[in-house]
Amino acid sequence: MNWPYVNEAGALKEEKCDVLVLGGGLAGLHAAIAARRHGAEVTLLEKGNANRSGAAGTGFDHWEMACTNPGCRVTPEEMTLALEEEQDYFSNAIGHYIETREGWDRLLDIEQFGGKIRDTEGEFAGQPFRDEKTGLLYAYDYHNRYTLRVWGTGFKPALVREARRLGVRIQNRIEATTLLTQEENGGRRTTGALGFDTRTGAITIYRAKAVVLAMSRPARVWLFHGDLPGLCEFRPFSSIGSGHAMGWRAGMEFTLMEKSVRGEFSASGRSFPPYGTGNNHNTWYAATLVDARGMEIPYVDRDGRELRTVEERYMPAPGQKFFLKGGVIDEPKYEWRGPETLPFDELIRRGYRLPFYADLGAMPEGERRVIWGMMVGQEAKTRIPIYENYTHRGFDPQKHLLQSYGTGWQSAAFLDQERQLFGAPGGVMHDWNLETNVKHAFAAGDMLYASDCAGHACATGYWAGEHAAEAAERADFGSVDQDLVCREQERLLRPLEVQGGIDWREVNAAAAKAMQNYCGGVKCEDLLIQGLQAIRSLKEESRRIQCRNPHELTRAHEVSDILEVSEMILEACRLRKASCKPLFFERSDNQEARREEENCYLTLRQEEGQVHPGRKPLRFYGDLETNYKAHQRGGGLE
Fold first, then answer.
1. Cis peptide before 286 (omega within 30 of 0)
2. Which residues have CB under 8 Å from 131's CB, separation 6+?
3. What angle do CA 408, 312, 294 make, to 5 degrees?
4. Which H or E run includes 601?
5. I need a labelling partner for 475 at 20 to 30 A (CA). Which of 24, 66, 527, 549 fits?
6. What is the pLDDT of residue 343?
7. Residue 545 within any structural domain of the chain
8. Does 105 fall in a domain?
9. DSSP character for 273?
10. Residues 150/135, Cβ–Cβ less than 8 Å
């Protein structure tokens, strides 16, 4: 295949800005808008096209933790505490509190930019989930009303329009590859980043006074299928944690990287598309489920009481303040557990027969339409592959059942070694400004440890952008390490010079298999050491990757980052010496509880190839409201 664009491989350019934002998803666009509102000159780099890139690029169906919306009966403090308890305090209370305090403000911003957040046409008038005064539609908990149903397919284009209107320089098809730093006062500060043009091959030095990393969480670490990439992970194929790899190489501190959960929704080609089978999870909650005979499968509340009506499924139990539901997928605590179907094994013991089905036709007409027509129609992972394709093939939710495959309510039976960084995973350690240990380098969205969903990305992105703009006001551009630039230029372009080499897919598949074998469901020191040896061997092998065009070259860079992240995960697993259930972390070689590990985050960073471990107490962030107010910069609508 010939090079399809102007070939500028080897060209080196330079640009300057006050604040450089890496990543054009929800978090990155909000960071750019916030920084620009505060007067900073802002450049945003996006590997794809910001109009539709990122985990929410093609839409999403609900907005969680909007605790200051006019109908909510849960305070930000109550919600943050519930999330802390649900995750046994291995939770990012800073990020969650910013989300619960400002998520609704960010949603109002999006509405002003042209996004749709209300049922303005009265399509669902009179339904129990609709507020007749505001037109807002609620999900999951109809009494406490902290989660909103939204028309998320229009949000990204609206944010891009606003960012451009404000003067943000959005540069699409630019892959951020390297964080630039310099020594300062015994530590390190950022001076910008390198960007690789994924079409021309040119490399640009972006010099900046502050940087916001707003890139995706890692994916394709344990799961990869070269022929079926769309089913490999829950998140977009191109979202693979390059920000984590970039931060790791620059000496950034991470935590909870040892945490992983079994694969959710996808299993490297062995599953159906996410939410493409009958279930009661998230987008499909609370669909009526029936067995092979058409017998309805009962829902129960927190106390085990069977619920007789559909509306009851959306209400707290007597005496229960509220329940968690939606994007929170970790095993919930008893106090906060929401209405769910009975456990799978219990259903079989009671005589229910496989296979099970979702029966939307048995639900009230409004509930059926809001699940299938709106939520499945607005969610990024379901709008095209499920809603449009199934409808085109003749699926009618009023007449047809949708079979539930696999075990439980997921789309496939997962193996212990099929892990993912899902459900509040590991990420960058930060302070209340969302600043990392690399001075003037801020993080937001999926870059943060124990990150959450859309509202979290938008709120933390805006918060990071405000603080980055403030940091840029008192900073200079610093210096650029030209030796690093030369080394990176050689690394990024090397695959173009390889002859008779290997395909990037081979290395990605080998890395995933190594992580399955040596960092699967159960860990031990010998396995982890072998895993590190395997990943480091693959790093050497990756030097043989051959690329013929910019598309393949970008994929090769992603594989390099996947190997970097895999090495970090293995090192993090070695640091945690005992099993830890809240982190889905199990060791076979040391089952004794270690109190010092149970009550702290284990952190790690690397410098010149040496891993430097650290610890922080679980509630290091102090009083939520006091610290929030002390660090709040306050940026609202213009």
1. yes
2. 70, 71, 137, 138, 145
3. 45
4. strand 600-607
5. 24
6. 82
7. yes
8. yes
9. P
10. no
Q: Which residues contact 100 (CB under 8 A, 6 or more apart)?
A: 65, 67, 68, 76, 79, 80
d(C-alpha 411, C-alpha 265), whole Å:
6
For residues 301 and 174, membership in a common domain is answered with no
For residue 608, the enclosing domain spans: 495-614
Instruction: Let me know whether 373 and 397 are in one domain.
Output: yes
Q: In the predicted model, what is the mean pLDDT of the chain?
A: 91
pLDDT of residue 596: 59
Residue 414 lies inside a defined structural domain of this protein: no
pLDDT of residue 637: 37
In sequence order, the 6+-apart residues with CB closer than 8 A to the CB of 514 are 531, 534, 535, 538, 566
pLDDT tens-digit readout, 105-143: 999 999 999 999 999 999 999 999 999 999 999 999 999
Distance, in Å, from the CA atom of 4 to the CA atom of 227, rounded to the nearest integer, reads 23
Tokens of 377: 């129609």
Helix/strand/coil (H/E/C) assignment for every residue in 565-582: HHHHHHHHHHHCCCCEHH
Q: At what angle do helices 525-541 and 504-518 cross, to 10 degrees?
A: 170
Do 20 and 208 touch, CB atoms closer than 8 A? Answer: yes
Task: Report which secondary-structure segment, H or E, holds 148.
Answer: strand 148-149
If asked whether residues 293 and 175 sit together in one domain, one would say no
Structure token pair of residue 361: 């036709």
CA pair distance 638, 636, nearest whole angstrom: 6
| Structure confidence at residue 635 (pLDDT) | 43
Cis amide bond preceding 355, omega within 30: yes
Residues 437 and 549 in one domain: no
Q: State the burial class of residue 381 (Cβ atoms within 10 Å of its Cβ: 0-12, 13-18, 19+).
A: buried
What mean pLDDT comes out for the span 482-505?
96
